[in-house]
Amino acid sequence: MTIATTTPQDQNLLQGSKFTLNFDRLPYVEFFVQNVNIPGMKVNNLTQPTPFRNAPIPGNKIEYDNLIMEFIIDEQLLSWLSIRNWMSGYSFPESFEQYKNLSMQEKIQISGSKPQYSDASLTIMTNKNNPIITFSFSDVFPVSLGGIELSTKNSALNVKTCMAEFQFTNYDIKKFG
Q1: Which of 34, 53, 59, 102 is 20 to 30 Å apart from 147, CA to CA?
Q2: Which uninterrupted H or E stretch holds 19?
């Protein structure tokens, strides 16, 4: 008889600061990312009518939470502007020309017929900085970009950060090792 054990083989804990976040169309942001979430998900349940009471049953559509990141704003504002220009390009705020130029923004060649999207990957590292798992997001696009607050009361040591939120179609998970 084999006795089952609940003690995991790998007892190392997840290091919250060991990650990289890469967007195909945001090369200026990667270095400055401070915080990011692994988006949650939910499935809304359905109701099965019965003669006695309605019974909940598993639903059939996954809804993902937004991918949310906080990043440092560089002196040239390239990290902030690259997201702003992306949003302006796909939302037609002034002209159709902005959408036409969307695939060439920031001198980044976006291939394919959907220039409003990007792919992104979030890689989690071990405590020895080796990749352990990657979340690959498909059809990512920004839905929210925070403002920048400036004040003469702040010292030069206070770096400015900003929040951005992204939606996506799906994500795949790849484990290493």
Answers
A1: 102
A2: strand 19-23
